[in-house]
Design goal:
Blueprint (H helix, E strand, L loop, with lengths): L1 H13 L7 E8 L4 E7 H9 L4 H4 L4 E8 L4 E6 L10 E2 L3 E3 L12 H13 L7 E10 L6 E8 L4 H11 L4 E7 L4 H5 L6 H9 L1
Parallel strand pairs: 3-8
Antiparallel strand pairs: 1-2, 3-6, 4-5, 4-9, 7-8
């Protein structure tokens, strides 16, 4: 507990807006079902920062990650250099931990989660996106975070998406990039593209 508190205090010092919310951790994963429990984000962050805590905490934090298709191509974002996790790497937004968004609700609605992240990170309202079915699950080595990959589609152009992202003021990503059909292979070969986003881009 003392080490968890130390790691949390250190993270809060670097990111004062950090919030100890309620997030989902998977206990059992099969091809058709994920079972788990709700836990504090500070515990998840401690295990992320110090993976050797896993034998004690036994957390497998569940996250959603989308790949947005526009009429021009697919969207990637570069995580801000000051990010608590995976700064400077390219990722397919929206992405984020599964959070308890309604008091008393014990179920997880993946579509609701990915749409909430899209509004927070890109400024895209739910009505502007079509949400596909989950297409893959990937485990981060070390931190044991489980990403659920979901394809999304919008009729908005990349320029319109970028304008909404800039207007939202969200700083999780410091750049957005458009991946056209012609550029797809070169992006797949980049070392700074995160594995789950690579898998989603590979699958389309």
């Amino acid at each position: 507990e003392a080490e968890i508190n130390r790691l949390w205090a250190d993270a809060q010092q670097k990111s004062p807006a950090l919030f100890n919310g309620c997030v989902f951790s998977a206990d059992k994963v099969t091809a058709t079902e994920i079972q788990g429990h709700w836990t504090e984000y500070r515990l998840v962050l401690a295990q992320m920062k110090k993976p050797s805590l896993f034998p004690i905490l036994k957390l497998q934090p569940l996250a959603v990650i989308g790949l947005v298709k526009t009429p021009d191509g697919y969207i990637l974002g570069r995580r801000h250099p000051s990010s608590l996790y995976q700064g400077n790497f390219w990722q397919s937004p929206p992405a984020g931990s599964i959070e308890r968004r309604h008091d008393g609700n014990t179920q997880v609605d993946l579509a609701e989660q990915i749409l909430a992240e899209a509004e927070e990170e890109l400024g895209l309202p739910a009505h502007s996106l079509t949400v596909g079915n989950p297409s893959l699950i990937a485990r981060h080595p070390g931190t044991r975070i489980l990403d659920i990959g979901i394809q999304l589609e919008t009729s908005l152009s990349f320029a319109e998406v970028k304008a909404k992202w800039q207007a939202s003021g969200n700083t999780e990503y410091d750049q957005l990039a458009l991946v056209t059909k012609a550029e797809r292979e070169s992006w797949l070969n980049r070392d700074d593209l995160l594995p789950t986003s690579r898998a989603l881009l590979q699958a389309v």
